[in-house]
């Protein structure tokens, strides 16, 4: 046996060297700053903005990534999903280009991403506090950029938060855009389960059908733990999850976060800590809230962007919610080639809508 020990020691040393090399690559690839905005010639755009800032928001240090070709233009605050899952990385794998038209603020909410802090009191992780935080961030942006009002875009969980902010403080915003709009998430989970069962039966994938049948979700009992562990895999495998082209959370989300240069290595770890922590404190309230009863009137223009293949937040529920909304201007936009993230899946159409409808307070490009 002893003659194998040198080989074992060599093998372990090789693994150690490999791990150290990987750690070195991750550190080198984690400068903690977003890349500058560049023109067609590859040179930084004069006068453009691409930076991270940290601001005291209601007693906690919270981070924002700000990008703009022209900082004197309109300001758009992006509310990410999750709860607790920042979205900036997705703008690096699926560039939206909205920083060409807006000063875009990728705010990482209390307890999420670069705003994660294990010392945040858990009792402050509430929808009411996050609404107050959104208002405080908005006022910081209004002051910094000299804007009376800004634009608000909420994605997924961010749409659950954003539509409530817009309902409470319409005076702060030119318009509200809900992408992958949450309406009644428990009902959406039930619909997703039904759709996935049918889709996998049609494909003849008996193994996945058995797994889904063993992972129930219902309006009376809610989602089972098995469903919560399975849903993302089942959605992404057939292109009805985060994006149509994303087939795995590992390759589509996990690895891109680790290679996102806007974060330091420690902040990349914080992304996953913040996601787990935020979800444990905020998910149940979102799941059981019927927003059609909470947000049925908004005193500002409202736009819903929904992917035809979105089963993370159900298309039909979002449309029903939209039809029941009272607002001075409304526009519902079906993105025929998108799942849950139309801005990143069909960016040209999204930017056309922003320029032609949202900035003009119109709805000429909306669905009939």
Fold topology:
Layout: H1 5-28, E1 49-57, E2 60-68, E3 75-79, H2 88-93, E4 103-108, H3 127-145, E5 150-155, H4 157-168, E6 173-179, H5 185-203, H6 206-213, E7 217-218, E8 222-223, H7 225-237, H8 249-258, H9 265-288, H10 291-294, E9 302-307, H11 315-324, E10 330-335, H12 342-345, H13 347-358
Parallel strand pairs: 3-4, 3-5, 5-6, 6-9, 9-10
Antiparallel strand pairs: 1-2, 2-4, 7-8
Helix pairs in contact: 3-4, 5-6
Overview of this protein structure:
The chain is of the alpha/beta class. 45% of the residues lie in helices and 16% in strands. The strands form two sheets. It has an eight-stranded mixed sheet with strand order 1-2-4-3-5-6-9-10, sandwiched between helices. Strands 7-8 form a two-stranded antiparallel sheet. α3 crosses α4 and α5 packs antiparallel against α6.
Q: What are its keywords?
A:
single chain, 368 residues, 13 helices, 16% strand, globular
Short description:
It is built from 13 helices and 10 strands. With 368 residues, it is an alpha/beta fold.
């Amino acid at each position: 046996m002893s003659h194998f020990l040198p080989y074992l020691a060599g093998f372990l040393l090789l693994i150690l060297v490999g791990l150290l090399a990987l750690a070195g690559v991750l550190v080198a690839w984690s400068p903690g700053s977003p890349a500058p905005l560049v023109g067609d010639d590859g040179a930084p755009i004069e006068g453009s903005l691409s930076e991270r800032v940290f601001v005291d928001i209601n007693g906690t240090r919270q981070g924002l990534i700000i990008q703009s070709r022209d900082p004197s233009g309109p300001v758009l605050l992006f509310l990410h999903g999750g709860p607790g899952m920042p979205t900036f990385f997705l703008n690096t794998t699926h560039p939206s280009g909205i920083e060409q038209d807006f000063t875009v603020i990728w705010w990482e909410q209390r307890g999420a991403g670069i705003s994660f802090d294990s010392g945040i009191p858990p009792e402050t992780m509430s929808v009411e506090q996050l609404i107050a935080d959104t208002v405080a961030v908005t006022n910081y942006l209004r002051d910094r950029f000299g804007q009376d009002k800004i634009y608000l875009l909420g994605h997924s969980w961010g749409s659950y938060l954003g539509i409530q902010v817009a309902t409470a403080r319409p005076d702060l915003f030119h318009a509200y855009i809900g992408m992958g709009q949450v309406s009644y998430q428990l009902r959406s989970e039930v619909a997703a389960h039904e759709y996935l069962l049918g889709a996998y039966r049609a494909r003849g994938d008996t193994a996945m059908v058995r797994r889904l049948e063993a992972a129930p979700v219902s309006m009376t009992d809610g989602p089972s733990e098995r469903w919560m562990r399975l849903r993302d895999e089942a959605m992404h495998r057939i292109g009805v999850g985060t994006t149509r082209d994303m087939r795995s959370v590992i390759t589509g989300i996990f690895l891109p976060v680790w290679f996102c240069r806007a974060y330091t290595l420690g902040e990349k770890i914080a992304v996953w800590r913040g996601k787990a922590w935020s979800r444990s404190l905020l998910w149940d309230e979102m799941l059981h809230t019927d927003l059609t009863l909470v947000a049925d009137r908004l005193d500002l223009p409202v736009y819903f962007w929904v992917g035809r293949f979105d089963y993370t937040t159900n298309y039909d529920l979002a449309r029903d919610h939209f039809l029941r909304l009272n607002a001075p201007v409304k526009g519902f936009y079906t993105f025929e080639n998108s799942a849950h993230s139309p801005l990143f899946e069909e960016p040209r159409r999204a930017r056309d809508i922003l320029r032609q409808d949202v900035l003009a307070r119109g709805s000429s490009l909306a669905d009939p």
